[in-house]
Design brief:
Blueprint: H1 3-29, H2 39-45, H3 52-65, H4 71-82, H5 84-96, H6 102-109, H7 114-149, H8 159-178, H9 189-217, H10 221-230, H11 240-256, H12 258-266, H13 273-289, H14 292-302, H15 312-319, H16 323-364, H17 374-399, H18 406-417, H19 421-429, H20 435-454, H21 466-471, E1 479-480, E2 483-484, H22 492-514, H23 519-529, H24 549-560, H25 562-575, H26 588-602, H27 604-615, H28 622-628, H29 631-635, H30 637-696, H31 702-734, E3 742-745, H32 746-756, E4 767-770, H33 772-775, E5 778-781, H34 783-800, E6 807-815, E7 818-825, H35 857-867, E8 871-874, E9 882-888
Parallel strand pairs: 4-6
Antiparallel strand pairs: 1-2, 3-5, 6-7, 7-9, 8-9
Helix pairs in contact: 1-9, 2-9, 2-13, 3-7, 3-14, 3-16, 4-11, 4-13, 6-7, 7-8, 7-16, 7-17, 7-18, 7-20, 8-16, 8-17, 9-14, 9-16, 10-14, 11-18, 12-16, 14-15, 15-16, 16-17, 16-27, 18-20, 20-22, 24-25, 26-27, 30-31, 31-35, 32-34, 34-35
Length: 896
């Protein structure tokens, strides 16, 4: 096939994946995932383990090393079947603590240590670099096979240029669909479904090539078995040490690889899916490995001796004139490489942004948590990180020469990520493990792996001098990278695996025994180790702080978005018995819940630091731990019941206290109401009486008669308006109001309200910010009544906004079949102590100089909106006075 058509086929395939991911993301946004969250999709997404290594490299591995390639399949199979309980514990921890990556898991377990998260992140990035280079190399080799087989086609670029274009294209796809939004659960439904589709493509492609080889070339199963017996593979002998080491290594990799952790733990939508995957994923692995040996044997038999065994899956169909089958095989290999790179880049970018970029940003700009769009910062950091990760993979591909066997490159990466295993397993099963122990183990294992395996993989005099490789540093022979401590004769891979994990585990254990965990470490350790315990909530990590709930809301909105943050705060407020406000009390339980929600977006360590910054580092003390976190006390049912009763009494007492405070304020307002209503009625009546008496005296100049008449007329209008408002409010409160229902355009109602409110302080130039497209929707409601609500809200904003450049922002969106309208100004807002009573009759702001009118406007608004089937509330944390009106799109109640 001509090279240009091959490129066109790749582009068409990528566009197809774009479409799949886009449609799924749109359905996810509409809450209509359905079967897309099924165990089938979850199991297929786990096939991310089967990269270009297992698609191309497994055949080359079999051709070079016989049945040793089976260890790469058997290791994960043994883990999913025999260690299912370990995977289940990881998934439970990930879901309960909103873990976003393997670095976040380790950081969160050991006291939310960001320094540990940084080390784990850097290790993951470096260890993944060879694996990304492997995928680039496989795609470059596959392009080279097609190009060399079609000399009449478009002149292809060289291997280096091809690698650059492939890396850039994969980075672009990952950025577009991996960083579109900041999910509080860090789940990417579109990407996962696209990966599942690619899993089917690569399985079908490999099985199709296998069927062609067995029945099309060999003539059936019997002749194929005879060819295998006669091939060099029949002389393969088992090396127990290397076989066992590779089994262990591949089993560890399926747990520790960042991409596997991403799809297995982070993307898990239902813990029950794991039980289905425990047998379905091994079945998939069996299907992928079924035809590896036949393809390798036929490739060795039919292709030239200098043919690359890694490309037998492609070159065999091409040599037999099967262009369509070769194209299917090419797309299968392309799927294997692209799926791995996309998910790996997302996982690594999440680690970099959560553990390096965000902490550094908050350290350099401490006030950043309360200002600016942190969501944009996080997403941009991840986009840049994806590009950097792809550049590092390309750099390794270039420096290593791209000539090593695919399997060798993959095994180097496996040993690197296996260094997470001691800290991970020890952390979730041993409460005595400490942050210092984890740090010592990770650093020891990482440097041993880099010295003994990673750096030598670049070749002599590339990263390490040839003299050091042969003689050791300063001639110390027992420190030679591939003969540490004088142990010679071991396979270099097994040698590096043994010493790195041995030193890693030893340092982890010894340092953990010699050090004592801090308070947060102890709580996190208990929560992780006892994750299957009876207590579903997260451990208490906060004491009573001095934080203002509004400050916490502002911070949460920067990361979670306005809707998600406000819903979280409103739910917590209702749970505390608060019905008049969106702001809950900053109790330890609420702070823990907020921290957990934030950790889903920026990681546990960064979330802990951000909440601590607002609260004032009011973390729980050792004395608090001894008082409330005693393990034996937590296990006693009676103690748990007492704790529940205490919390219930505390909530009830808080609700009663608030009710008492509100009754006190209402009592004061009642007195003020009587005084105000008498004043509001007496003032115009006094004016009318006085000026009418003057008119009855006679002999007045015409000008004075006209002026007094105008005064009487204006005071009469004022009195009429007050009486109309009182009567209107009385009718609304009784629920006997007659509504004139019909279809009305929201934008037109807001336009009318803005025009009607222009008479309020017309000398001030207000700037309105609106989304006219969002406002262009129809409601079945009472248009006149709803317009009256908007007039009152906009008039109040014009009346009370004290900003030098006054602005009014009107936001409209549809949420759950209801329309939400926010009216927000940029003034000082309403004082906290007045927010709970502003909808009461005759309530005005404390500053009398600004408080004009009878104070009935918001009370009338509340009753109108209630009669229209909606609600109105003050919205704190918006930088000014903000009111939210929620209405049904279609009011079903008939007009009276």
């Amino acid at each position: 096939m001509p090279f240009n058509l091959l490129v066109l086929a790749c582009l068409a395939y990528v566009i197809f994946l774009f479409s799949v991911a886009f449609l799924v993301e749109r359905r996810a946004g509409q809450g209509q995932l359905g079967w897309l969250r099924s165990p089938l999709v979850y199991t297929l997404s786990l096939s991310i383990y089967c990269t270009a290594w297992t698609f191309y490299g497994a055949v080359g591995y079999a051709a070079r090393s016989g049945l040793e390639f089976l260890t790469i399949y058997l290791g994960p199979t043994l883990v999913f079947i025999g260690w299912w309980w370990l995977l289940r514990k990881l998934v439970r921890i990930g879901r309960r603590h909103r873990v976003t990556s393997i670095a976040d898991l380790i950081s969160s377990r050991f006291g939310k240590s960001n320094s540990l998260g940084v080390v784990a992140t850097l290790m993951a990035v470096v260890a993944a670099t060879p694996y990304i280079a492997l995928q680039l190399q496989s795609v470059v080799l596959s392009f080279g096979v097609f190009a060399s087989a079609t000399p009449d086609g478009f002149t292809p670029p060289d291997a280096a240029q091809t690698a650059i274009w492939v890396a850039a294209g994969l980075a672009l796809f990952t950025v577009i669909f991996g960083t579109r939004n900041l999910d509080a659960k860090e789940q990417h439904h579109g990407i996962v479904t696209a990966i599942a589709v690619e899993a089917v493509v690569k399985l079908v492609a490999l099985v199709a090539v296998g069927i062609f080889v067995v029945w099309g070339l060999a003539g059936g199963i019997g002749p194929m078995l005879e060819r295998i017996d006669a091939s060099p593979l029949a002389g393969w002998t088992l090396q127990p040490g290397r076989w066992t080491g590779l089994l262990f290594l591949s089993g560890a990799a399926v747990i520790c690889l960042p991409r596997m952790f991403q799809v297995m733990v982070v993307e898990n939508a239902d813990e029950g899916h794991l039980s289905r995957a425990s047998w379905a994923f091994p079945a998939y692995m069996l299907a992928m490995s079924l035809f590896i040996v036949p393809i390798a044997v036929m490739g060795l038999e039919r292709l030239p001796a200098d043919a690359n065994p890694d490309m037998f899956v492609l070159t065999l169909p091409l040599s037999e004139g099967q262009g369509a089958l070769a194209m299917l095989a090419f797309l299968g290999g392309f799927s294997s490489a692209t799926s791995m790179v996309i998910v790996e880049a997302i996982a690594l970018a999440t680690m970099v942004s959560n553990h390096i970029v965000m902490p550094a940003w908050l350290r350099l700009r401490p006030a950043a948590a309360m200002a600016g769009d942190l969501r944009g910062l996080v997403l941009n950091a991840r986009r840049i990180s994806i590009a950097a990760v792809m550049a590092m993979g390309y750099g390794y591909h270039s420096l290593s020469g791209g000539s090593a066997a695919l399997a060798a490159i993959g095994l180097i990466a496996f040993v690197g990520v296996a260094q997470f295993l001691p800290a991970m397993i020890g952390g979730i099963f041993w409460r005595g493990a400490t942050r210092s122990g984890a740090m010592a183990g990770l650093l020891t294992g990482f440097f041993t792996w880099a010295y003994a395996l990673f750096l030598p993989s670049f070749g002599p005099d590339a990263m390490l001098p040839a003299s050091l490789l042969a003689e050791g540093p300063a001639g110390i022979g027992w420190l030679r990278p591939q003969a540490l401590f004088g142990v010679e004769g071991m396979d270099p891979l097994i040698h590096a695996l043994f010493w790195s994990l041995m030193l890693n585990g030893t340092a982890f254990f010894v340092v953990s025994v010699l050090t004592f965990p801090g308070p947060v470490e102890r709580l996190q350790g208990a929560a992780f180790v006892n994750v299957f315990g009876d207590q579903p909530g997260s451990p208490r990590r906060w004491s009573e702080g001095e934080a203002e709930p509004e400050q916490l809301l502002v911070m949460a909105q920067r990361l979670l978005g306005e809707d998600a943050a406000q819903a979280l705060f409103e739910t917590a407020a209702r749970a505390q018995g608060k019905t008049e406000t969106l702001l809950p009390d900053p109790t330890p339980e609420f702070l823990s819940e907020l921290e957990q929600r934030l950790s889903g977006s920026v990681g546990a360590a960064t979330a802990h630091a951000m909440v601590s910054q607002v609260v004032g580092w009011a973390t729980v003390s050792v004395e608090d731990l001894m008082a409330v976190a005693s393990e034996s006390a937590q296990r006693m049912e009676y103690s748990a019941q007492l704790e529940a009763q205490r919390e219930e009494l505390a909530r009830t007492a808080g609700a009663l206290r608030e009710a008492n405070e509100k009754l006190t304020r209402l009592s004061v307002q009642k007195d003020a109401f009587l005084s105000q209503i008498s004043h509001e009625l007496r003032t115009p009546m006094t004016s009318i009486r006085a000026f009418s008496e003057i008119l009855t005296e006679g002999d007045l100049p015409p000008e004075m008669v006209a002026r007094n008449g105008r005064i009487i007329h204006e005071e009469t209008k004022r009195l009429t308006r007050l009486l109309d408002d009182l009567l209107d409010l009385s009718v609304l409160e009784s629920g006997k109001v007659s509504l004139s229902l019909g279809l009305a355009n929201l934008r037109e109602m807001i336009d009318r309200a803005i025009q009607a409110a222009e008479q309020v302080k017309p000398e001030r130039g207000f700037t309105f910010h609106r989304d006219l497209a969002a406002e262009n929707l129809f409601l079945r409601t009472d248009a006149d009544r709803l317009t009256q609500v908007f007039i009152n809200l906009i008039s109040n904003a014009r009346k009370y906004c004290d900003a030098a450049s006054p602005e009014i922002r009107i936001n409209v969106r549809i949420r759950g079949g209801r329309v939400v309208v926010d009216v927000i100004d940029n003034g000082r807002g309403i004082p906290k102590e007045a927010q709970s009573t502003i909808f009461e009759k005759f309530t005005r702001l404390p500053n009398e100089a600004r408080a004009k009118g009878a104070g009935l406007g918001l009370a009338i608004c509340r009753e109108i909106v209630a009669n229209l089937g909606g609600s109105i509330a003050y919205l704190p944390g918006q930088g000014g006075a903000a009111f939210r009106v929620i209405l049904p799109l279609r009011l079903e109640r008939k007009a009276a």
